[in-house]
Amino acid sequence: MKIKKGNLLIVFFRYQEISLFILKDPVSVLNSLKGCIFMFFPKLQYILAFLVILAIANVTIADDTPEKGITTLDTIVVTAQKAPDTFETGDVDLTRTPSFFTVIERDAFEGRMTSLARVLEKEAGIQVRQFGGFGSFSSVSLRGSTSEQVMIYLDGVLLNDASGGGVDLSTISLEDVAAIEIFKGSVPIQFGKASIGGAINIKTLRAHEGLMGNVSAGYGSFDTRRSSALVNYKRNRWDVLFSGEFLKSENDFKFLNTQGTLWTTDDDQWERRENAQIEQINVLGKAGFDLSNTTRISLVNQWFKKDQGIAAWNNNPNNDASLATRRNISTLRLTADNVSSLHLNTAFGFDTTWLEETYKDKKGHIGLGRQHTRNTTYKYGFNSYGEWITNNNILTVTGDIRYEHYKPRDLRGQMVNRDSNRTLLNLGMENTLLLMNHRLAITPAMRFAYIKNRLKSETTAAGARLEELRDTQQHWSPQLGVKYQALDWLVLKTNLNRYIREPSFFELFGDRGFFVGNMDLKPEKGINWDIGAEAEWFFTQSPVERLTLNLVYFYSDVDDLITRAYDARGIGRSVNISGSRIQGIEAGMTLQFFEYFSFSGNMTLQDTKNKSSMAAFDGKKLPGRYGQSYMCRLEAGRWNVKVYLEYLVDKNLYYDTTNLLKAPDKEELNLGTSYLFRDRWRFNADVKNIQDNYFEDFYRYPMPGRSVSASVTYIF
User: Fewer CB within 10 A of the terminal residue: the chain, N end or C end?
Assistant: First the structure.
């Protein structure tokens, strides 16, 4: 039986023609298309299989009978087109991916007294919540997700672990970061594990030719001090890079203490924040050796240390609760391109992570009772990546196996120690079919996850033996993305995917006093869909030089959503919501004009709905999500001087599932400037929250008011 090239695609496109044909009423376009897609979704796994078969057929035909005028692309040529300091095998090719993404380059934060949380919060679809001042616990949400539903990678190494709690953004330094890639909703197959919210990939600096580096120092409000150094050296086949950062802040900002009484202001008073100080050190070392022009081996080690006080909700001056964090990540990586006659690009990596958190609240000021615990997580992982590039196909295969051991210890000897471990196997396949002279890219993908959990048997203080708990799960997660270059200035994208996330040990067992566990949690299962357009124009002989616009509609439907609920005491607990729906719109624009000016702005409007079977929660907004977010920024630059003014607004957030506790809206005006002197000295100054507004991301944990910072960097 002879397979004719394109037959399966004709069937697929006919279905799309039917879907588009019924969308004649512009008002009901999104709802009708959403209904068609979700009706079609149960058959998506079969279609993905068909498209993979078609891809293989296309590969065979393309290799045996190349079309006239088309030259076969050699893999090494493709990778050579990427900048060697920013792209290597295993990275996402942003020119091909159908995912909606944002890239934040180093220029946006280099040398400034800022944090990863502050940088991320300015992007559309992203919301960041912080427990307090500089360096405090910070979590991120993508498109209405929880922090647990966002996968965060550091050079491709997953920072989320079975111990859970979401990734604390404050433990990631910007000193050694080259770029931040944000993938919303659909996640490329390069990341072995994806989730309902999306993924953030933090790419550290890579070696440049020769010797270069910098030293930096800065000071800011609330006795905030920062110093850092970076050295890079590359010669012939060898390269090394070293960076280090020290950060310290007292975080003794003034705030209005309401004493926890919402209905009276008689006892309200302005106070200095107590016990919110932080001190942290971050060190990164890299070494690499080019075995040949196409083969490279590299070793990376990152060490992080942080000591912080944990402020009490009532700002008790006698509170001395603290959290000490220690983390070390080591990675060994081998890349080999242009392998065999198939010109395969491959990468293999082995990584280990050690994380230790010591929490002390001997006076019981923070959570439920007195506590002194030390939780240690050990992670070991091996991952592999391979891609095969031909005329009309890019076939990618990934594999990732990971073992995690979580060891909580009660140093007071009054609680049961629950050792737990988790084994994960993630396999993925993705194929990009390039059609219509590469203007159309169809990218089906499939992930398989095998998860094995084990809660070891322990002995209680009374001598009773606990039952050992074991659990095994298997999940298939299909996804499909389409990218179409409709016009030279217009790109259309759409993605449909299903993800499953198992509860973390943090959600199951609780931690640190202010968060208790829930052993009855079930995995959450979600479907994401988005559709949107991106446009870009360049102008000559006009005051306007460049204009970009983007508009995206996103929709998520999640069963058994795991979300956090807090009681009147501020104590949190994860619960399953039988059903939930999140939908919204992201819009953004950038405008460059009069040569020296640029304007950028974005907005996110999202509607979250609790579809719980419990009448008290049904129809309510999901807690911990802002309903509206806006950002606009005006920047001017000339003669090595840049000045910016930006305005940020977040509205309509509820702390609780019953929507009785509403957070104050956030409104923030920021101003900053930078000056580059003789290409050697860079001076930065920033004023945050000029209006000195008061707001809280977490109930009873206020954010600082106005703050000022300045820094100087010497570049060599």
Answer: N
